[in-house]
Amino acid sequence: MGAFTGYVVNTTDSLKYSKIQNANDSASTTAGDALTIYSLTAVANGTVGATITDLGCQVTLDVDDATITASHQYEGMYIVMTNGTNVNKHYVIIDSTEAATDTITLAVDATTGFTANTDTFKIIDRIYDEKSYPTANVALTTSGNASSFIKWDASGTLVIDALSQVNYNIYGGAGLTGVKFTNSAIFANYLTSLFGGVQPSSNYSSYYRWGNETVTAASSGNWSNGATWPNGIIPGVGQVVVIPNGITVTVDDPAITVGDGTTTSAITVDQGGTLQIDTTEAENRVITVKGDITVNGTLRLRSNSNTSYSTTIKFDCTANGEFGLIVTATGLLDVLGTSLIDQDVIITANTQDNAHNAYIYCQDGSQTSLKYADISYMGMNTNLKFGIYVESVDAAVSGEYFYMDGCNIHNSYQGIRTGGGFADFTGYPVIVNNTFGTCSSTGINFERYTRNALVMNNIVNTSYYGVLIWTGSYNNLIKGNVISNSTYDGVRIGAVNSDNNRVYNNTFYNCGRDSIYVDVGVNNSLISNNIISNNLTGSAINDTGTGTVINYNMFYNNNANGTTGTNSITGT
Description:
Radius of gyration: 32 Å
Number of helices: 1
CATH class of the largest domain: Mainly Beta
């Protein structure tokens, strides 16, 4: 038996080719075609034995007895090493002998890299070493399209070998898109790199891809129902999903994974489209995305009322801030867990180590309601990606709002940050009954131009600042909160034009510097009816502002009480 020439089948059109290049170049190869490159794996698992013999221009290997069943049966085939120093290298078999100790003789002039009793190998019937393009084994020049890729698969162990004679194994032709090529192949002996020309946009879920493979829902229905999708094919790993106008898709699978790891959103809900969660079955729902979720329409997240189950969105990031949930000017993010105790809608990172954090970004004009959710591993110190970031949501557009109630926000960079401009500010955000824990920067950050916010009955624990009210943020109410264990200030009101803010009925303890700090240039703050205890290094109230009213506060066991104002109670 000897090695074979190439064998490539266009399984869509039932056409056969002797070269990969010929299959690519055929006029019959079009969008949506599936092609298979064949290589018979005659022996899937073999092991090098105790003796390796150097014969000068040949090497003989003892092999395990199960490898060879008859002498000469693998001559002309190839051995491919699957571990050790020579992993992925391949050699022509010039003799195979069935005897008391089976042997294979290879066309190689040294024993370098072979290890007795350790190395493993496969035996295959062909190698694809065609040089069909001046600088590559193969030039892929025939494109599919976003909704109908050309797919190249392998049957058996596929080796594409440049023989150290050409620069690349695969060259991407100009404008190549809508193509995916198996990443299971062994790409060998290129001079420059595996790919030349147009580079793959991603390497994810078994394929190198040129372009984004987009699946657009065809009709309203359940995610698991083929009738919801074009050609009845349910989207999966490596594909990106679009829910178009007028379509509602209901996630009814226990677990789905989509996205290709590129800057193209893993899920896009178009304006007028809806993605929602089926809650009728007593089971978990887990959506893992390798990419953003962009909400131009409606994303509605719920969970089954049985407390044993939850709905989870996981962002599979390779670094902090790579992917996030983006609610645009026409988008509605509607999150409602079962109860304050359950908080059974979960938004988090797939890898929970604060090195792979995601983020939530609510843009100007958006509508966001987060209630009874658990939100964690969000944010980094990069604009728009701080954690939950609300920008210029000022109620100027009908229906525009941000509302967060009864959520647990933890293990993030910042819990929530709001911002805007002098004219296009963030206004009337409601942040009530939440718990903020272990935020490395700030629990609640009104970074700039946030006005008329209600921050009430929250627990803010273990952050750098508990609540930060900054440039141009005024008329905000901080009431009934418990703020503790801040590394720096519990509440800081700072920078210019941060006027008329009210801080009352709050409890502060174990704050690292000042429990409440009012900066120079801040006017007409009201600090009243607060309980402040165990302040560590600074003052309970450090007031350097103008026109600050401080009254009816209780001070106990602080490093220094600072400005106590009128009608206050002090103790140690």
